[in-house]
Amino acid sequence: MSDYSSYTERDASNEALCNLVEEYLQEKDARSTDTVLAINAKTKKIELGHKTEFAAGWETYPIENLIRDNEENSGKEADIDATFEIASSFFFVC
After folding, report:
1. For the segment 7-63, what is each residue's pLDDT rounded down to a tens digit?
2. Secondary structure of the chain: what % helix, strand, coil (to 5)?
3. What are phi and psi of 27, to 5 degrees?
4. Which of 90, 38, 26, 30 has its CA nearest to residue 63?
5. Pairing of strands 67-69, 58-62
6. Helix or strand or coil: residue 79?
7. pLDDT at 94 over 70
8. N or C: which end of the chain has fewer CB within 10 A?
9. Of 36, 30, 68, which is closest to residue 52 (Cα–Cα)?
10. How far apart are the C-alpha atoms of 9 and 31, rounded to whole Å?
């Protein structure tokens, strides 16, 4: 198995991360402020939850670090630069 991933895999992962952050923003009032985005290092599965819900093998990221103001400063959106950095750490493309 290769240690390298395709651009398609990395970009699909980034899109999935952005979608999950956007889902959080839609449900923000129903979730706690200490929500994290978690990625299973082996399976690459992504979930939202509390840090204590995830066992070893999961990398967690505070959800607030993945959110930024939109261009009009009228609301919040997924920080695509932050999600791309995470996706790139799991899918190495050369």
Report:
1. 888 999 999 999 999 999 999 888 887 899 999 999 999 999 999 999 889 999 999
2. 45, 25, 35
3. -110, 15
4. 38
5. unpaired
6. coil
7. no
8. N
9. 36
10. 29
